[in-house]
Design goal:
The structure holds two protein chains of two kinds.
Chain A: H1 9-29, E1 33-37, H2 44-49, E2 53-60, H3 67-81, E3 87-91, H4 94-100, E4 115-119, H5 130-142, E5 147-154, H6 160-174, H7 178-194, H8 198-214, E6 217-228, E7 234-244, H9 258-262, E8 267-270, E9 273-276, H10 280-285
Helix pairs in contact in A: 4-5, 5-8, 6-7, 6-8
Chain B: H1 11-19, H2 26-44, H3 49-58, E1 61-65, E2 69-74, H4 81-86, E3 115-124, E4 128-134, H5 136-149, H6 155-162, E5 163-169, E6 175-184, H7 194-204, H8 216-226, E7 235-237, E8 240-242, E9 249-251, E10 256-258, E11 263-268, E12 274-282, E13 293-295, E14 298-300, E15 304-309, E16 312-314, H9 317-324, E17 335-341, H10 359-367, H11 369-407, H12 416-436, H13 440-465, H14 475-481, H15 486-502, H16 507-526
Parallel strand pairs in B: 1-7, 15-17
Antiparallel strand pairs in B: 1-2, 2-6, 3-4, 3-6, 4-5, 7-8, 9-10, 11-12, 12-17, 13-14, 15-16
Helix pairs in contact in B: 2-3, 5-6, 11-12, 11-13, 12-13
Classes of the chains: A alpha/beta, B alpha+beta.
């Protein structure tokens, strides 16, 4: 058995939420969006957002033992759904493809895209930090296109050190603002002690914010959603809007501040409903 | 005690997958043929005509070509596990001869020679899907390595080692087959050239006629009537629908070509069974159809008759020329069209470039003689017509030139006879061409020429009768004035007659000479 055609109801809710932002992105560009990313094997995301998507550049790594077998099945699904003529299949690991700017068959990524969906099965926090490096390169390559970035990652933490390094980086960035620094110190003490998902969220959102602003993008991170996926995996879904600032030559200051990020509402899907998770502010109130 | 023996070895695979296909694009034909058979089975598995029609309209073959893979997808009946497993059995086929385009069970091995991996993904709609994985490169390498060391590997073991079937859950009702030829080998890269693939498939595949072909409906209606199970395919390559390459008019490499409305011919055997149906269109222009047709950036020949079995082309335009035209082979290219072979005893060879040499083929060729006779006759008739037209045009110009000269009195008297002869020739040729042609325009033009020739002839003959020199003007007067002996008179008259004859066409010179003689004689004799 190599594949199970079973959609996850929580994921369906996530895709419905995404769809609202995708429609806004579609309105912002006044044209159908070019999609890049890791579609679900049944193309559920594409099916759900199909009216707003034009070209699809999908990456499939396949299994280690026989990489092309799964790629073949993905294309088979594309034929069935009628996407095949809009689909460019890139073969290989998405991080390698982004970092090398070509897939296993030397096929280049046709940047830019208005919609990027990085639906990782695993964590962002690999020891070699390949995913965060790839995201940084992707933002660079997307310039000057405005786009919507969707990231889904597993909360498993492979590289605690990366988290702590990032926290140090943030502290350093905030050192000039003593009030903000002390607020953040209290925050990280809370997330590190409680090992809440907030520490991963602030980690990724901070990196996105930093990389985006360096590349002169104004970034808005939207409320992340925590949910349970297949095989009981715990996942976080991130949604970020990137708006290129063409007349800025140095780092951009996004409208959404770092303080805003700390107080960003986090949702959880439970019993098919969207609920708010306790935030740092709630914790402080207690 | 029984000893298990192997009877088929690896090198057979070379012969069946690589050696059989001189043109690498023929590999695609094999998979297309399988898809076509599957669609036929799907369509005709229902007796309900409405369902058949719906299935005919929605069935399709989609080919996608990317940087290193070719995918051939059909939404036909699909395969269950047992049938997919039989896909691995080379030379095994449940398909019956006569009903299906492919029945030898060897075409499925075609991709093994051109790809690194071959995947067959399929589902028959019952909620399970299967993927057959064929490690083609591994198989080829194993055979090659064995060759080097002189080892003979049994084919059974090789196929078992290099292939596998996986199962997956599929949506109930999804039925399809998709073959992927992954990582096409270096010497087969033309398979990745979408334009070449489109041009090739337009010529060989069982496709619809181009909707822009004026005679498409007329021909297709006849094909549906005469050709059992006639089922043209909806075939797409990278999203572009591919059609048979016929048009009533097309711009070739050097000029526009045009063909005449179609003619059809049914061919029956001695027992009055329909063994072939032919449609053809004669060239509207002069002689052979020489202009190629542009299809997906390639110019392809459309001249001649193509043989088709189950609507899939066998051989090329030279095959009918070779088999059917014993004499005047050039006439075979005066038309374009198809001969659909309906006799299932006439077997295409495995490479589909010819027919198996058997009695049925002999009879088939013999029985197709009326097609040749028709084309030859029409070609001759057309040649005559074109010739008549050309001759009449030439003669019209000639008679106009003569008429103008006559009108301007520019024809010297000594050439009048010759012009009468020329005019009679023009008139005679016009009468001949008028009889030979049925074309009204040519007949009318001939009539005009005849009329004009008659007028010209009349004028020329009249001019011939007109005297050229005024009589009794010069020498008679002088004879009255001077007295000559009878002998001198005879000499004088002879000289004058010689001069008259000599200057018959130059009366002015003659007159001048006679006046001078007159004056000289008057001077001489009056004194």
């Amino acid at each position: 058995m190599i594949r199970i055609f079973k959609d996850n109801p929580n994921k369906q809710i996530i895709r419905e939420i995404d769809k609202e932002y995708i429609i806004k992105e579609y309105q912002h560009h006044s044209k159908k969006l070019r999609y890049f990313g890791l579609p679900s094997e049944g193309f559920y995301d594409i099916l759900q957002w199909n009216s707003y998507i034009n070209e699809i550049v999908a990456v499939e790594r396949g299994s280690k033992s026989e990489p092309t077998s799964r790629q073949s099945l993905l294309m088979c699904n594309a034929f069935q759904y009628g996407f095949h003529n809009r689909l460019l299949l890139l073969r290989g690991d998405i991080n390698d493809i982004i970092l090398n700017d070509k897939d296993d068959n030397d096929c280049k990524i046709p940047y830019p895209f208005e919609l990027v969906n990085l639906d990782y099965g695993g964590s962002i926090l690999y020891e070699d930090r390949i995913r965060t490096r790839a995201i940084k390169k992707l933002i660079q390559m997307q310039k000057p296109c405005d786009f919507l970035l969707l990231i889904t990652s597993n909360v498993r933490e492979f590289d605690e050190k990366e988290l702590l390094d990032t926290q140090d980086r943030i502290k350093k960035d905030l050192s000039l603002n003593k009030k903000l620094e002390s607020e953040f110190t209290a925050y990280i003490n809370w997330v590190n002690e409680n090992k809440t998902i907030h520490r991963q969220i602030i980690h990724l959102n901070y990196l996105l914010k930093y990389d985006a602003e360096i590349e002169t993008y104004d970034i808005e991170c939207l409320p992340p959603i925590y949910y349970t996926g297949d095989t009981n995996s715990k996942l976080i879904h991130y949604i970020s809007k990137f708006r290129y600032q063409k007349n800025v030559s140095t780092k951009v200051q996004s409208v959404q501040s770092f303080l805003d990020l700390l107080s960003l509402q986090i949702y959880e899907i439970k019993d098919n409903k969207l609920k708010t998770l306790k935030s740092f502010k709630d914790f402080q109130k207690i | 005690m029984t000893v298990e023996e192997n009877f088929v070895y690896g090198h057979v695979m070379d012969a069946l997958s690589g050696d059989l296909y001189h043109n690498k694009l023929d590999v695609l034909r094999e998979y297309l043929q399988n898809s076509y058979d599957a669609i036929k089975e799907y369509v005709f598995s229902s007796d309900n005509e409405d369902i058949q029609l719906k299935r005919m309209n929605t069935s399709k073959i989609d080919i996608k070509i990317d940087s290193n893979s070719i995918y051939i997808f059909d939404n036909a009946i699909g395969m269950n596990l047992q049938i997919l497993n039989e896909y691995r059995k080379i030379g095994f086929s449940r398909k019956t001869k006569g009903t299906y385009a492919g029945w030898r069970g060897i075409g499925k091995a075609a991709g093994l020679a051109v790809a690194e991996m071959v995947y067959v993904n399929t589902s028959n709609g019952e909620g399970k899907g299967y993927q057959l994985v064929f490690k083609a490169k591994e198989l080829r390498d194993a055979i090659l390595n064995a060759k080097k060391t002189g080892i003979n590997l049994p084919l059974d073991g090789l196929i078992k080692n290099c292939s596998d079937i996986k199962e997956f859950d599929e949506v109930v009702g999804n039925h399809y087959t998709m073959v992927e030829l992954h990582n096409i080998t270096g010497d087969s890269k033309e398979l990745l050239d979408a334009n070449k693939v489109i041009a090739y498939l337009s010529l060989i595949a069982p496709l619809h006629f181009n909707p822009n072909f004026e005679y498409a409906n007329e021909i297709e209606e006849q094909l549906y009537f005469y050709v059992e199970d006639y089922l043209p395919m909806n075939l797409f390559v990278n999203g572009e629908q591919v059609y048979k390459p016929y048009l009533h008019e097309w711009v070739g490499e050097s000029e526009t070509a045009k063909i005449k409305p179609p003619k059809t011919k049914e061919i029956y055997d001695n027992e009055n069974n329909l063994i072939a149906f032919c449609w053809f269109c004669m060239n509207s222009g002069k002689g052979q159809i020489t202009e190629k047709m542009k299809i997906a950036n390639s110019f392809v020949h459309v001249k001649g008759l193509y043989l088709r079995v189950h609507n899939i082309r066998i051989g090329d335009e030279q095959l009918t020329r070779k088999y059917l035209w014993y004499a005047s082979p050039e006439r075979s290219f005066y038309a374009l069209g198809e001969i659909h072979v309906l006799d299932d005893k006439v077997d295409p060879t495995s490479g589909r470039n010819d027919f198996v040499d058997n009695h049925a083929r002999y009879q088939f060729i013999h029985k197709c003689a009326p097609i040749v006779a028709d084309i030859n006759y029409l070609a001759q008739e057309h040649s005559n017509k074109l010739r008549s037209k050309a001759v009449i045009n030439k003669k019209a110009i000639e008679i106009n030139e003569i008429a103008t000269k006559v009108e301007n009195k520019a024809i010297p008297k000594n050439l009048v006879s010759e012009y009468i002869y020329r005019t009679q020739d023009v008139k005679h040729e016009a009468e001949k061409r008028k009889k030979a042609t049925s074309e009204k325009a040519v007949q009318n033009k001939a009539d005009n020429i005849i009329k004009k020739a008659n007028i010209v002839l009349n004028k020329l003959e009249t001019s011939l009768r007109e005297p050229t020199v005024p009589e009794n003007k010069v020498y008679k007067d002088i004879l009255d004035e001077i007295k000559l002996t009878d002998e001198a008179k005879l000499v004088y008259e002879n000289i004058i007659n010689v001069l008259k004859n000599y200057f018959v066409n130059d009366p002015n010179i003659l007159e001048e000479i006679l006046i001078r003689i007159d004056n000289a004689l008057t001077d001489a004799f009056s004194s």
